[in-house]
Design brief:
heterodimer; A: Glycerol-3-phosphate (1)-acyltransferase; B: alpha/beta; N-(1-d-carboxylethyl)-l-norvaline Dehydrogenase, domain 2; 2 domains; eight-stranded mixed sheet
Chain lengths: ~550, ~325
């Protein structure tokens, strides 16, 4: 498959183009694995169709105009194109995609960017103008103080030397990729490549870091299957070459605030494909693939308000309208980072136990272990009649199992914080009072100024924390240090400070002996981080999406 | 080479089918006498009376020997002994081996499904379940039957079908492992209810009412646990339910009939001399229904008759005076 010379000589872009074109030609000849025969004309027309639909809604910028011109030329040529000309057109289409995907990747500046990052963000915390961000390298408040890096850090550092790592974090905020990029730097790991949404490249606040953190570009508005396959090919080839990767298995940021329950399996399967490909061509030394789950737990989430509204809008098809995202607004960044700094809040980045591409645990020596701790040779899961066998349906199922293990890991390494605890208790009390089974009606009855007796809230919070502590003891969740106390008053006070600080409307405030809930949607968003643990005997507020 | 673990009635019959289909079969049993009988005389009179096994079926008490180099390991062990065997299997199994089981039931206390136990105790991942309306003595006598093999792995189904399909056994496929396992376990509770109804002579209408509502309840419960409702319209669902509820020789049916005659559970079980899965399944059904907040009045009343001494007449009266809801609900599968 890999028309490899020595690994250093392989240009990833060329390899991706070659393979994707091979794959399409293979299917056109009827030799594809698991799929039907698919003539080239059909592939080309499919691209034209999907791209036309996309460009219909796209902004009229230089990129869109170039795309339109290219498509017009293809459309013009196609009816008269010979077989070899069709192949050339497919190649050209794939090349354009690869150029866009890989366009921003530059390893040389990776080191520089990570050195700038902690000062840069702390600069923002002190209210420097974003324009001065890149020049201003001084600053007393370091990002380190607000970012706790915990968990299996040592194991990850070791595994990154033994094989290829795919880091798979939870995804709540666009800040995630910046924080993870920084965490990778702080752990002393070599660069990780990852696919960042194209919006991150167009946002002036992040584009600088994005260009330089080893990111390739993902344009989610492109629905063309050829594009999707090319993206996956890109990740697979980079993994086969031994480059560590970063995927967000949730695909997009969690809009409900809940931990991911349904990872996107397409990209996740790239690890297994790379593992298998390396075995098939005898590159055993490069074959070891470690998938490392990681949770990022925020006391406050920059984009909480718009994410919550988007979730409710889609789920309820109600009158909720998507507002523009906080992420693109400088003032929200400044407020957010100031809030985090002022309250001395901490974001927990927790590295989980590594898994192999089949979902089995991997120990610090890189050895796979079954659920009883016995050593397993993961290659054997691919054997049929003694040889490594290519079976896409089988591998998809293995990847589904891996996805399940990742979501379990998220649950265990989720760090509960006072904001979520308070939000959970408040919404539970309100739900009991209102006795309204419909989520949307329930939320509409809440706020502004919905009162709850503070002693009742404190008692409920104490009960909740007691339950959380039992779960923590059983290794089913983590508690932040602020939850070490058993004093409900203290936890409520801390939770309130968080919930009233950053968001434009305080989520809840205290007035005398009462707590007044102001914003039902945000309350819902923050409480959802503790959904699915069966806390306080509460039923789910909305149907779970589980792996299918 | 195929390993069959468990030389009971069904395990021995399946070994016979596999061997007749051309596979070499190693049958694992704990009992040396059974092993010797199978190896010397090719019979297993205690478990499968009248059956003469092909010479290609050999028995062993050594699990490692049974499983070594087997392409498929087929487990046919009662549900309450399943974990113990699975744990031992975990010591000898290798990742490329395919594991199928044909055990209908849930583990007591944990309510674990058999494939869940396999994942916990062994390195097996390519696994599947065999279930359906399969009275072993009929298949042993070469009467025609159909069965379903469910697995998320197409290759598992392909191999199972190749190994088991023959003129007396049609092998259908499915991918709803959870549904097939839950159907096989929970239908036994409905069978007890059907036994009660038969013995009470409340009429064919009532019997049909019991079976249909029972099916609705086990479907609803299983769907909240991740099963597809359609599975319950298939061989593992209505198919198995028909055979279990219609046949008066089924153990669960006999338990129901004895309850309706006013006998007490311990006496019934000691008279039966063997396990009636439905007695445990009723406990599992109740705790699962509570945990998943599913209304299952029929299953609940079977539990109360079995384990709380409720009278059958009283149960019938209570059930008949409950408000009747929608006949067929629109199931929303959580995996959809």
């Amino acid at each position: 498959m890999l028309r490899a010379r020595k690994s250093e000589d392989v240009h990833i872009e060329d390899e991706v183009v070659a393979r994707e074109v091979d794959r399409v030609l293979g299917r056109a000849a009827g030799g594809g694995v698991g799929g039907k025969q698919r003539p080239l004309v059909e592939v080309i027309n499919d691209t034209l169709y999907h791209e036309r639909a996309r460009l219909h809604h796209a902004a009229d910028d230089a990129r869109a105009r170039a795309d339109r011109a290219f498509h017009a030329r293809v459309r013009h040529e196609l009816p008269h194109a010979s077989a070899s000309r069709q192949t050339a057109l497919v190649r050209e289409m794939v090349e354009r995609y690869v150029a866009e995907i890989a366009g921003h990747f530059d390893r040389r500046v990776y080191g520089f960017a990570t050195r700038v990052l902690p000062y840069g963000l702390s600069g923002l915390m002190q209210g420097f103008s974003p324009r001065g961000l890149l020049n201003e390298l001084r600053g007393s408040s370091r990002l380190d103080e607000h970012l706790l890096l915990e968990g299996e850090v040592k194991a990850l550092q070791r595994l990154a030397k033994l094989g290829t790592v795919i880091l798979v974090p939870t995804h709540s905020s666009n800040l995630d990729s910046l924080l993870i990029g920084y965490a990778i730097y702080r752990m002393g790991l070599p660069p990780f490549v990852y696919g960042a949404g194209i919006n991150l490249f167009t946002n002036p606040l992040t584009s600088y870091f994005m260009h330089n953190l080893g990111a390739y570009t993902v344009d989610r508005s492109k629905t063309d299957p050829l594009y999707r396959d090319t993206l996956k090919q890109y990740a697979t080839v980079s993994l086969e070459l031994g480059q560590h990767n970063l995927f967000f298995p949730g695909g997009a940021r969690s809009r409900s605030g809940e931990l991911e329950t349904r990872p996107k399996l397409g990209l996740l399967g790239a690890g297994l494909t790379a593992f298998r490909n390396n075995l098939l061509r005898g590159a055993e030394s490069r074959a070891r693939m470690f998938i490392v789950p990681c949770t990022i737990s925020y006391p406050l989430v920059l984009e909480a308000a718009s994410l919550a509204r988007e979730f409710l809008e889609e789920t309820g098809r109600s009158q909720y309208i998507v507002v523009n995202d906080e992420f693109s607004r400088i003032q929200r960044w400044v407020d957010f980072l100031r809030g985090i700094a002022a309250l001395d809040l901490r974001v927990h980045v927790r590295i989980g136990r590594a898994l192999d591409p089949f979902g089995d645990d991997v120990d610090e020596q890189g050895v796979s272990r079954d659920s009883r701790g016995r050593e397993v040779d993961p290659r054997r899961y691919l054997l049929r009649d003694g040889r490594v066998f290519d079976d896409a349906a089988r591998d998809a199922e293995y990847t589904r199992m891996l996805g399940t293990r990742i979501t379990e890991s998220y649950r265990r390494d989720n760090v509960a914080m006072p904001t979520s605890v308070l939000a959970f208790a408040l919404l539970e009390l309100l739900r009991r009072d209102v006795a309204q089974p419909d989520l949307f009606r329930l939320l509409r009855t809440i706020g502004p100024d919905t009162p709850l007796d503070v002693t009742r809230v404190e008692a409920e919070v104490e009960k909740l924390v007691a339950e959380l502590r039992v779960l923590e003891h059983d290794g089913k969740i983590r508690l932040s240090d602020e939850l070490r106390t058993t004093d409900g008053r203290d936890i409520v006070a801390r939770g309130l400070r968080g919930l009233r600080t950053y968001h434009t409307t305080p989520i809840a405030v205290r007035r005398g002996t009462q707590l007044l809930v102001q914003d039902a949607d945000l309350l819902f968003y923050y409480r959802n981080r503790l959904e699915g643990y069966g806390l306080l005997g509460a039923q789910r507020l909305y149907p779970a999406k589980v792996l299918s | 080479m195929i390993a069959v673990l468990g030389a009971g009635n069904w395990g021995t019959t399946l070994a016979d089918v596999l061997a007749e289909n051309g596979d070499v079969v190693r049958l694992w049993t704990r009992t040396p006498a059974q092993r010797d009988e199978i190896n010397a005389r090719h019979t297993n009179e205690g478990a499968a009376p009248g059956l003469r096994l092909p010479d290609t079926v050999t028995a062993t008490c050594d699990l490692g020997e049974a499983v070594r180099d087997a392409a498929i390991v087929l487990i046919v062990i009662p549900s309450q002994a399943f974990r113990e065997v699975a744990r031992a299997l975990g010591e000898v199994l290798v990742p490329e081996q395919i594991v199928l089981h044909a055990t209908k039931g849930l583990e007591r206390e944990s309510n674990a499904r058999m494939t869940e136990i396999l994942l916990e105790e062994t390195c097996a991942k390519q696994i599947g379940v065999l279930s359906g309306p399969n009275l072993a003595p009929e298949i042993a006598r070469h009467k025609p039957a159909g069965t379903v093999v469910a697995s998320r792995f197409p290759h598992v189904i392909e191999l199972a079908r190749k190994a088991l399909s023959c003129p007396r056994l049609m092998v259908f496929d499915g991918d709803d492992v959870i549904g097939v396992e839950l159907a096989g376990a929970l239908k036994n509770v409905v069978a007890i209810a059907a036994g009660i109804a038969t013995e009470m002579a409340v009429g064919e209408n009532a019997k049909s009412l019991v079976v249909t509502r029972g099916l609705a309840e086990i479907t609803r419960l299983a769907v909240t646990m991740g099963a597809s409702p359609l599975t319950f319209a298939g061989l593992a669902g209505i198919g198995d339910l028909m055979v279990t509820c219609a046949s008066p020789i089924s153990r669960n049916h006999r338990v129901g009939a004895a309850l309706a005659r006013g006998q007490k559970l311990p006496d019934i079980l000691s008279g039966l001399g063997m396990v009636a899965e439905g007695v445990y399944a009723a406990v599992a059904a109740r705790s699962l229904a509570q945990a998943h907040r599913v209304e299952a009045p029929l299953l609940d009343h079977v539990y109360r008759i079995l384990h709380e001494g409720m009278g059958c007449d009283e149960a019938l009266h209570e059930l008949m005076t409950l408000p009747a809801g929608r006949d067929v609900s629109r199931f929303q599968s959580i995996t959809a």
